[in-house]
Amino acid sequence: MNSIKIREAESTDMDAVHRLIVELARFEESEASVKTSPRTLQQDGYNGSARFKCWVAKNKDEIVGMAFVYPRYSTWVGPVLHLEDLIVTESNRGLGIGGLLLDEVVKYGHSIGVKRISWEVLDWGVKRISWEVLDWNEPAIKFYEERGARVMRDWDVVQLDEMGIKKYLERL
After folding, report:
1. CA–CA separation, 11 vs 127, rounded Å?
2. Of the listed 70, 73, 144, 168, which one is catalytic?
3. Is 144 a catalytic residue?
4. Please, how many CA atoms are within 13 Å of residue 155, restricted to the half-sphere of its CB?
5. Rg (CA), the chain
6. CA pair distance 126, 128, nearest whole angstrom
7. How do residues 91-115 score in pLDDT, each as one tens digit?
8. Could you write out the DSSP letters of every residue in 16-56?
């Protein structure tokens, strides 16, 4: 395990991060839904007003995993850190990399909740870390529950994509 290193992602890592995003989308049978590119990730994450924070896992010299977070706000609890994606390449699963990445997310969330560290222009203390998991992804559910996460199976994710927004607005 000593060949595995976790570090904060850099702009130059976005090609590898994007490949991981596509790999996750393929696993979830939604590859066509990926609209970002390495360039948009670079612009949105490294242009002086970052919209997200990302960590990468390297095994030897190859990026084999990542965790991707951004701030949200809950009307019930206040500031929330949202974990958008946590992915480890299939060939590197079972090596503890997912746990190491989740450790970094939780440590970061705790640090900004306790110390109210400013992230760019934001100054907020995280009250919760949240994310979604597909109901059929039992290995991931088990992974999260073993680490103390509460999987709320009675909630459904609701979204409006670009087409949905357009159709909604046409009704007004």
Report:
1. 28
2. 144
3. yes
4. 10
5. 17
6. 6
7. 999 999 999 999 999 899 888 874 3
8. HHHHHHHHHHHHTT-GGG----HHHHHHHHSSSS-S-EEEE
CA distance 149 to 64: 24
- Tell me the pLDDT tens digit for each residue of 106-164: 899 888 874 343 444 344 566 788 889 989 999 999 988 998 888 888 888 788 888 88
Instruction: Write down the residue that tokens 């450790």 correspond to.
Output: 103
* C-alpha span between 30 and 49 (Å, rounded): 29
**Residue 162 φ then ψ, to 5°:** -55, -45
For the whole model, what pTM was predicted?
Answer: 0.84
Domains of the chain are 4-131 (3.40.630.30)
Query: For residue 148, what are its two tokens?
Result: 């103390």
Say how far apart CA 136 and CA 66 lie, in whole Å: 21
Which of 23, 15, 102, 111 minimizes the C-alpha distance to 57?
102
Looking from the CA of 164 toward its CB, the CA atoms found within 13 Å total: 4
